[in-house]
Every structure is written in structure tokens, then in C-alpha cells.
From TrEMBL:
Originating organism: Iodidimonas gelatinilytica
UniProt-annotated binding residues for NAD(+): 52-54, 76-79
First-tier enzyme category under EC: oxidoreductase
Assembly: Homotetramer.
Database matches in Pfam families: DapB_C, DapB_N
Protein name as catalogued: 4-hydroxy-tetrahydrodipicolinate reductase
């Protein structure tokens, strides 16, 4: 029942298997281990699945990828229009500016966030690395502490802030000699993620098994 008394027609249950069996599509924003369980249930019931959870380690992500042989799986670290557009802008800037510009990615989230750097920061890192033509895993500095020495040339740096109720802020800095460009996005309301996820779920129904992301939904694929 909504606050104004309107019936919501929602069913709340702890039977995930029944949920997957009876749904046209499922949206999951939980945590990596739970999302893996849900991907297995989705594969069993052939139910399309939208996943927003972040913080998967490489083995967990590989297991998620395997599910795409059986179901339409749409996974995205960020369901806002702005961040998905930012991916394209970052790739373009990284390519145009070249290696004389150092790339640093800064993110801030609310005090409850479990994973760092955020999934969005890592995805923006992937976009920058692809614009640069480098592999992110072997060209990133995710933590700096103590006598670190000079910046490692060509690496992409990450910095993480946590506090309060910040919905999600990301900035990608391109720092060169005598000038700096910053591309940034601020989410001021977590509803942008919820609305994006519902849009993605409606888009995913009826799609063949495979891997999809928010760029597919928004028509932003290069
Ligand atoms: N892609 C995007 O656009 C966005 C992604 N996220 C990501 O979504 C995830 C959740 O974030 P957030 O909502 O802030 O986190 P919360 O901790 O507020 O919510 C997580 C929810 O998942 C539930 N949950 C955890 N494990 C299970 C399980 N095994 N079975 C069923 N439910 C489970 C929790 O239930 P309980 O409370 O009972 O433990 C809780 O309700 C994070 O990984 C976050 O980074 C968040 C916002 C946007
Ligand atoms: O945990 C959050 O809140 C968010 N998580 C996602 C991430 O890790 O990038 C997306 C958004 O920034 C909010």
C-alpha cells in the first residue's frame, strides 16, 4: 500500500527461485556473491537479468560472464544517462590528449558503500585506458600511501572519498603541463539509478542470450 492508500500490487518474498520462475525480467542491486547466486537462478529459469551490483573480483566476473551463454544479462556499474555519456567523452579525451596528460579518477560516495574504487570509477578507467590503447589492470595505481616516489608514467590513478549521504560523484582529470581538463558527473538523487535500471529491464525483455550493458540501452555504443 502506498502512503496515499493506493494498492501497489507488490509481492515480497524470500523465495528467490520462485521470483525467477515467475518473472519476465529481474533487477538485482545487492552484492557480488548474491548476484552470482541470482545469475545461476536466472540461468536455470532462463530469466533475463539486470545487475547493478559492483565490486566483483575477476573470478566472480568470469562466473557472471558464463551466465551469458544461457540468459540475456545486462550488467552496468552505473545506470545514469550522464555517466554512460561520460564514458564516451573520457575515451575521446584520452585518445585526443595522449600520454603527456596524466589521468586521475576521483570518486566520492556515501559512508555505507562497501567497495572501492566504485564500479563506475573502474569503468571510467577502462574507458580512459581504451582511449589510450592500454590495459587498465597493468596500468593503474589504486592506492597511494607513504613515500611513493614520482607518479608512474602512463598509469591511471584512483582516489576514493567516503562520507555522508553522497549519491555518487566522479571526476576524470587530465593533467598536463600548464593545463588541466576535468570531466565530471554528480548524481544528486539515487532515483537516476533506479529509473535507468527499470528502463534497462524493459529493454532487455525478449533479447537473446548474451551480454549487454547500459550503452546498448541508450544507443551510445561506438
Ligand atoms: N549500477 C548502479 O547504477 C548502482 C549500483 N549500486 C551497487 O548496488 C549494490 C547495492 O548498493 P546499495 O543499495 O547501496 O546497498 P545496500 O546494502 O543498501 O543494499 C543491498 C541490498 O541487497 C540485499 N542483499 C544482500 N545480499 C543478499 C542476498 N544474498 N539475497 C538477497 N538480498 C541480498 C541487502 O539485504 P539486507 O539489507 O537484508 O542485507 C540489501 O537490501 C552495490 O554493489 C552498489 O555499488 C548502487 C547504486 C547504483
Ligand atoms: O554504491 C553506490 O551507491 C553506487 N555504486 C555504483 C558504483 O560503484 O559505481 C554506482 C553509483 O555511483 C552509486
Amino acid at each position: 500500500m502506498a502512503l496515499d492508500g493506493t494498492p501497489l500490487d507488490l509481492c515480497i518474498s524470500d523465495d528467490a527461485s520462485a521470483l525467477f520462475a515467475q518473472s519476465d525480467v529481474v533487477i538485482d542491486f545487492t552484492a557480488p556473491k548474491a548476484s552470482l547466486t541470482h545469475a545461476r537462478l536466472a540461468a536455470t529459469h532462463k530469466t533475463p537479468l539486470v545487475v547493478g551490483s559492483t565490486g566483483f573480483d575477476p573470478d566472480q566476473q568470469a562466473a557472471m560472464d558464463q551466465a551469458t551463454a544461457y540468459i540475456a544479462l545486462l550488467q552496468a556499474a552505473n545506470f545514469s544517462l550522464g555517466v554512460n555519456l561520460l564514458h564516451s567523452l573520457v575515451r575521446q579525451a584520452a585518445q585526443a590528449l595522449g600520454p603527456e596528460f596524466d589521468i586521475e579518477i576521483l570518486e566520492m560516495h556515501h559512508r555505507h558503500k562497501a567497495d572501492a574504487p566504485s564500479g563506475t570509477a573502474l569503468a571510467l578507467g577502462e574507458a580512459a585506458a581504451s582511449g589510450r590503447g592500454i590495459d587498465l589492470a597493468s596500468h593503474s595505481d589504486r592506492v597511494r600511501d607513504g613515500i611513493t616516489g614520482p607518479r608512474t608514467e602512463g598509469h591511471i590513478g584512483f582516489a576514493t572519498l567516503r562520507g555522508g549521504d553522497v549519491a555518487g560523484e566522479h571526476a576524470v582529470l587530465f593533467a598536463g603541463a600548464g593545463e588541466r581538463i576535468t570531466l565530471s558527473h554528480q548524481a544528486s538523487d539515487r532515483m537516476v539509478f533506479a529509473r535507468g535500471a527499470v528502463k534497462a529491464a524493459l529493454w532487455l525483455v525478449g533479447k537473446k542470450a548474451g551480454q549487454y550493458d547500459m550503452m546498448d540501452v541508450l544507443g551510445l555504443k561506438a
